[in-house]
TrEMBL record:
Domain of life: Bacteria
Enzyme class: hydrolase
Enzyme Commission number: 3.2.2.9
Protein name as it appears in the record: adenosylhomocysteine nucleosidase
GO MF annotation terms: adenosylhomocysteine nucleosidase activity; methylthioadenosine nucleosidase activity
Naturally occurring in which organism (per UniProt): Salinispira pacifica
């Protein structure tokens, strides 16, 4: 069966998942990307740290997809595709009802900093394409249903992705993120991974644990949370895998 690709942006965001892999083997993809093959709940996976930001994330995601397409197949066989891509990690909360430690499962996500409005294109749209809000795969969303974390609540909502760490509530941008895009959480990779999955026709799910409230305390809270960042992700992934 095709492997499921598991990504997080930073070491802390994948650590517990890596420790939980059975038959773990380290591989280097394209000469630069460190990844781990193994199984989780008996399913083959490829796990990697994408790096921070949309560009690193898109590069890493595509590199893994291409690696899977080429490996271990007879030369005349159709290229293999990953069974799914699941991105987990931390996010800042934009929604007053979402607190530190809560789980945000993305119904959809969008690049909040993609702005070609000067060309008459709606903010967040990849220009001259139909890509704006990128939806998570319904089967993966259904599999995530019923997840009960050890602490905090589970929300389904909208994740906003951009190449900025958001830490100022009184910034005019904050109102745009919350009121116009109606974001529940903000982070720096999800929509890049989602776009990569969409273009490659790979089912995608994005889920984040809230580490901070995207305010003046965000930097400290984020650092504090990073140590236990991947514990909740591992539990969520185990829940999803047991229901696929
Ligand atoms: N990831 C976690 N918290 C974040 C924030 N406040 N802004 C952007 N990405 C984040």
């Amino acid at each position: 069966t095709s492997p499921i690709v598991l990504l997080g942006a930073m070491d802390g965001e994948i650590e517990e998942i890596r420790n939980a892999l059975n038959s773990r083997e380290e591989i280097i993809i394209g000469g630069w990307l460190r990844a781990y093959r193994g199984t989780l709940e008996g399913r083959p996976v490829v796990l990697a740290k994408s790096g921070v930001g949309k560009a690193m994330c898109a590069m890493s995601t595509q590199a893994i997809f291409d690696h899977i397409a080429r490996e271990e197949i007879p030369s005349n066989a159709a290229p293999r595709k990953p069974g799914a891509l699941i991105f987990t990690g931390l996010a800042g909360s934009l929604n007053p009802e979402l607190h530190i430690g809560d789980t945000l499962i993305a119904a959809d996500c969008i690049q909040h900093d993609l702005d070609a409005t000067a060309l008459g294109i709606k903010r967040g749209t990849v220009p001259y394409s139909s890509h704006r809000f990128l939806e998570s795969d319904p089967d993966l969303l259904a599999a995530a249903e019923g997840y009960r974390p050890e602490s905090g609540r589970v929300h389904r909502g909208r994740v906003l992705t951009g190449d900025q760490f958001i830490a100022r509530r009184n910034d005019p941008q904050y109102a745009y993120l919350r009121e116009e895009l109606e974001g529940d959480g903000v982070e720096m990779e999800g929509a890049a991974a989602a776009l990569c999955a969409k273009v490659n026709s790979v089912p995608f799910l994005l889920a984040r644990t809230i580490s901070d409230e995207a305010d003046g305390k965000a930097e400290v809270k984020f650092r504090e949370f990073l140590i236990r960042a991947s514990q909740n992700s591992l539990k969520l992934l185990t829940h999803i895998f047991s229901r696929l």
